[in-house]
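Recap quiz, item 2
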Amino acid sequence: MITAAEYKTGGSFALQIPDFDIRKIMDSGQCFRITPNGGNTFTVLSSGRLARLKQENGGTQLLISCSEEDLHRYWWNYFDLSTDYAVILASIDPKDQYLSQAASYGRGIRILRQDLWETIISFLISQNNNIPRIRKSIEALCGRFGKPLEEGYHAFPTPDAIAQAGPDALQGLGLGYRDKYILAMAKRCAGPDGKEWLRSLEQADCREAMSLLTQEYGVGIKVAGCICLFALHHVDAFPIDTHIRQILEKHYPEGFPFDHYQGYSGIIQQYLFYYDLAQK
DNA sequence: TACCAGGTCGCTG
DNA sequence: CAGCGACCTGGT
């Protein structure tokens, strides 16, 4: 049983979390608003909240600064801290040397439970793009339309803020041709109807969610898969991008053993993706 | 200079 | 319905 003990006053908590590495999570390409501050400290932005994390290299102790309510009501779930990743790691076929190596390398990665709307927009931006530029565009979007938070940080903008701003306001953010997808999605998610649509997505199973998402302008199978995996926590979603496609072709010419990882192949996908990214 | 980056759209055969 | 070129943009 993992317990959260108050570390000191001022809202800093010390947690003992196995298989948790904030730096690997930051670099795993599933989220774009975790930034390093030096000294093994990181700032995490999500859903209008800000948390600071500190983790020594290789250390099992995690320090998190936020309100007690945010810790229990939000960040605990966001970081998926109730899931036992040791079980997943132990299930990996030891005869699969490539995957064993990838999972060993990526141990500490967790599949986050991110905000649905923020994840939809983030992965619309991600298409045919690279991670530094995705980050830059998202920060520009937040800076222009998001509510100011402490120390110059900004919340992710609401659907209505973007929808009401119109197409011209999306210029100059480095979005390129994706701006029209973002505007269309903001309109889709704005207002009471938009909220209801997002709610229906959250209640759908993976297959239904994929169907609903891919009906929207700019959302293909890959982006929908990322949304299912990184926001809706359908860990059986297995988004195939250029990296994963190359891995499958090179290391699994006979086909990837999806049966062996049925129900959580998305987590395996993330180890593969992170390992491939680190090789380059 | 071309090519690539966590792809998707629209058109063609 | 499968295949294929176009596509914003910033970095090698």
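Chain A has a mean pLDDT of 95.
Residues 29-30, 123, 126-134, 177, 181, 217-223, 226, 239-244, 273, 277 of chain A lie near DNA strand B (CB under 10 Å from a C1').
End of item.
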